């Protein structure tokens, strides 16, 4: 492990102190032409990001994710509301001090943004040069950083000689060079294949856990959030529609927008086509139940059906894991004496399970 210090950052999970705070932030951009209405990129967004956590922001293209990042690093100012980073309220700071806050924030990008004419070591050294760090100390830090990201043996190569994943490792080393407390990752894995994405996320996890750096990761990919984030906010058309632990938001989305995101990757209700196929081979009533993270959940289900003399056959669904907790849904074909199926469903509802009858 390297000995890079990161200010007063605490290790992941131990702190609830808000580090980044949005208070009713709205960001409008002027219309493209004189007669058009201004464009609202973010509408009344409030959120808190704790020191030491990995916070994901997910949303479709144009949802306002990059605008949110640019408000955190002070490259944009809110039209309404306030943005706090650490003890500072950004809008209240003069530009010179805002630059100081920015120095404590590292950034990585989808297209890596490396200097092609500089070597790997030269890219990592660049921010240290700008900060006036003297040569010997610079060399020491660059070597430590390249060792940390596993690229010490590529120090003298140029970016064009590297794979996408390696380029992003250089990007990460460069972003960490000035020992920031916060790392902003804007679609940092979107140009990478799934396996390389996994490697880069694992590295970011180490940055968080071993160096105590708070990470805000912006993405349109659910798997990225599942792979790394502690908490997540869902942005939809400029509005923050839901936020919470990754498990809460993805296992039990409360809004249509979050459910749309989740439904595309987590196993959920059968599609219309699947349902039509199931109907052809199953004459009983089809009922879907979301898997709950509580012990004995499935035996309780089985017990309820048994008590009501209802035969329950699983015909669709599955269970996977999210943050080490079970998540998924099961579709049953239920058959039994008159009234028994309804009675068993009423018993499930009384027990807090929400069976959904497929029509
Ligand atoms: N400087 C700007 N001037 C005018 N409109 C802007 C500006 N920056 C962003 N927008 C608009 O604000 C909205 C949100 O953009 P933003 O880039 O934040 O979304 P995003 O979620 O990051 O999308 P993507 O994933 O495609 O980058 C878009 O409609 C965009 O066109």
From TrEMBL:
Domain of life: Bacteria
Molecular function terms from GO: ATP binding; ATP hydrolysis activity
SUPFAM superfamilies (alphabetical): ACT-like, P-loop containing nucleoside triphosphate hydrolases
InterPro entries: AAA+_ATPase, ABC_transporter-like_ATP-bd, ABC_transporter-like_CS, ACT-like_dom_sf, MetN_ABC, MetN_ABC_transporter-like, NIL_domain, P-loop_NTPase
Residues of the ABC transporter domain: 20-262
The entry's keywords: Amino-acid transport, ATP-binding, Cell membrane, Membrane, Nucleotide-binding, Translocase, Transport
Keyword NAD: no
Function, as annotated: Part of the ABC transporter FtsEX involved in cellular division. Has ATPase activity.
Subunit structure of this chain's protein: Homodimer. Forms a membrane-associated complex with FtsX.
Family membership: Belongs to the ABC transporter superfamily.
Protein name: Methionine import ATP-binding protein MetN
Biological source species: Actinoallomurus iriomotensis
Gene (name only): metN
């Amino acid at each position: 492990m390297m000995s890079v210090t990161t200010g007063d950052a605490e290790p992941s999970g131990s702190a609830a102190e808000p580090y980044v705070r949005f208070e009713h932030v709205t960001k409008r951009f002027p219309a493209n032409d004189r007669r058009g209405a201004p464009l609202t990129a973010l509408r009344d967004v409030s959120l808190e990001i704790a020191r030491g956590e990995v916070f994901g922001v997910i949303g479709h293209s144009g949802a306002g994710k990059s605008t949110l990042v640019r408000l955190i690093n002070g490259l944009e100012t809110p039209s309404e509301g306030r943005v706090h980073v650490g003890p500072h309220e950004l809008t209240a700071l003069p530009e010179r001090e805002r630059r100081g806050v920015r120095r404590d924030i590292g950034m990585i990008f989808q297209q890596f943004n490396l200097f092609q004419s500089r070597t790997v070591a030269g890219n990592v050294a660049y921010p240290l040069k700008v900060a006036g760090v003297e040569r010997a100390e610079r060399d020491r830090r660059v070597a430590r950083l390249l060792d940390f990201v596993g690229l010490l043996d590529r120090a003298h190569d140029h970016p064009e000689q590297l794979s996408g994943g390696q380029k992003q490792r250089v990007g990460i080393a460069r972003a960490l060079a000035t020992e920031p407390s916060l790392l902003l990752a804007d679609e940092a894995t979107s140009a990478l294949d799934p396996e390389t994405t996994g490697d880069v996320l694992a590295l970011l996890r180490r940055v968080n856990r071993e160096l105590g750096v708070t990470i805000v990761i912006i993405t349109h990919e659910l798997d990225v959030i599942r792979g790394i984030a502690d908490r997540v906010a869902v942005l939809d058309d400029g509005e923050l529609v839901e936020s919470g632990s990754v498990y809460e938001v993805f296992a039990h989305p409360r809004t249509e927008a979050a459910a749309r995101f989740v439904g595309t990757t987590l196993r959920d209700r059968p599609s219309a086509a699947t349902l039509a196929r199931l109907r052809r081979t199953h004459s009983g009533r089809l009922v879907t139940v979301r898997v709950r993270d509580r012990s004995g959940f499935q035996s309780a289900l089985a017990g309820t059906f048994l008590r009501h003399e209802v035969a329950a056959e699983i015909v669709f669904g599955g269970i996977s894991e999210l943050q080490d907790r079970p998540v998924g849904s099961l579709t049953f074909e239920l058959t039994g004496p008159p009234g028994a199926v309804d009675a068993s469903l009423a018993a499930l509802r009384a027990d807090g399970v929400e069976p959904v009858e497929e029509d």
